[in-house]
Design a protein that fits this description.
Elements: E1 2-4, E2 7-9, E3 11-15, H1 19-24, H2 38-50, E4 54-58, H3 61-69, E5 78-81, H4 94-101, H5 111-118, H6 120-129, E6 138-140, E7 161-165, E8 179-180, H7 183-196, E9 202-206, E10 212-218, E11 230-232, E12 244-246, H8 254-269, E13 275-282, E14 291-297, H9 308-315, H10 320-332
Parallel strand pairs: 3-4, 3-5
Antiparallel strand pairs: 1-2, 6-9, 7-8, 7-9, 10-11, 10-13, 11-12, 13-14
Length: 345
């Protein structure tokens, strides 16, 4: 490690797939929806360099495998993981698993947490075990024959229902057909999802009609954990800053307090680290509405003026550079000093 501008200069491997590369290979915008925006990578890269760190860009898991095999990781102090993965039901866990195997300190959650949170059904099972509210649900297996789907129309869940792929994020597979108003609409909706994601199970749960929040969480002092949520203007607005409603002035609202409370419970139960977010939706607009955890995101977008995490930080007086530096400091707090390079610069 060296010294720069009065602070520790680290050798940082910035790991992330580049969306433009996959688009050039012929994948669709929806295929690439979860991948990091090229502008997001550039924002993180330039900010880390401005903070005095020496940054090596590692463009995805294939490049990471090559660099690990060549021993190049031995001169990294830290991996800043932005990789979402592209193949497989536990794709978000693949890069953390490799980093863990090679004992490379890294930001955000470990492989076990990433894999668990990627599967929404498994997430809900853990939430149920810990008595953290989440909507009742059933899972339609990917290999369920089409002619047997009728048995799920009498599952006991109350209509309207909401159906979605069990391991997708970034609103992939979400459209108007996902809200199922009666048994006659269930089979066509499930078939539509199965045709788009043939290898994925389908999650079925009651449609929650109340307000939806995302609660950014952080593990560092003076962070954003004590501040209220951002509210989604609609179910389809999760990737657009201009459709988020800031609720920073509404700390005393009972629903905001309830959403903060259950999101923090979930964050701790899953062992999330450094920063991320939890999505919550209330089951109604009544005073006694229950905040249900929709999903836990142990790795969250970092696109300035767009992603909820930096948006919430900014609204609470935390600059983008301060957010990234705090994430790094949080990750370094887990490191045994022997994992850092031998004081070389």
């Amino acid at each position: 490690m060296g010294e720069s501008n009065g602070s520790t200069s680290l050798r940082v491997a910035l790991i992330s797939e580049q969306r433009s590369n996959y688009l050039q290979l012929g994948y669709s915008e929806e295929d690439c929806a979860a991948l990091t925006h090229d502008g997001e990578i550039q924002a993180v890269l330039s900010t880390l360099k401005n903070l005095g760190h020496q940054v090596t860009l590692v463009p995805g898991i294939e490049s990471l495998v090559q660099q690990l095999a060549a021993g190049k990781h031995k001169c990294w102090d830290l991996a800043f993981n932005m990789a979402q993965g592209f193949h497989g039901p536990a794709r978000e866990s693949q890069v953390p698993a490799l980093l863990g195997a090679y004992q490379v300190p890294h930001t955000f959650a470990d492989a076990a947490t990433m894999a668990l949170c990627q599967n929404k059904a498994n997430t809900k099972m853990v939430l149920n075990h810990h008595n953290i509210p989440t909507a009742p649900f059933l899972v339609i297996p990917a290999n369920e024959p089409a002619d047997s789907l009728s048995k799920f129309t009498t599952s006991g869940l109350q209509y309207p229902l909401f159906v979605k792929p069990v391991t997708e994020g970034s609103s992939k597979g979400i459209d108007t057909f996902n809200k199922v108003k009666n048994p006659a609409e269930l089979e066509p909706a499930v078939q539509q999802l199965k045709s788009k994601f043939p290898a994925e199970d389908v999650l079925v749960e009651p449609f929650l009609s109340g307000r939806e929040f995302t609660k950014p969480s952080a593990d560092f002092t003076n962070g954003i954990d004590g501040h209220p949520d951002l509210e989604f203007a609609s179910r389809w607005s999760k990737s657009s800053r201009n459709k988020l409603i800031l609720r920073d002035q509404d700390l005393t609202h009972p629903q905001v307090q309830a959403a903060c409370r259950v999101s923090l419970d979930a964050w701790k139960v899953f062992g999330c680290r450094d920063a991320g977010r939890v999505d919550i939706r209330f089951d109604s607009d009544e005073p006694d509405a229950v905040p249900n955890i929709l999903e836990v995101n142990p790795i969250s977008g970092l696109l300035p003026d767009h992603s909820p995490l930096p948006a919430c930080a900014e609204s609470n007086g935390i600059s983008y550079a301060e957010l990234l530096e705090a994430i790094i400091e949080s990750a370094l707090g887990r490191c045994d000093s022997t994992f850092l390079t031998n004081g070389s610069s």
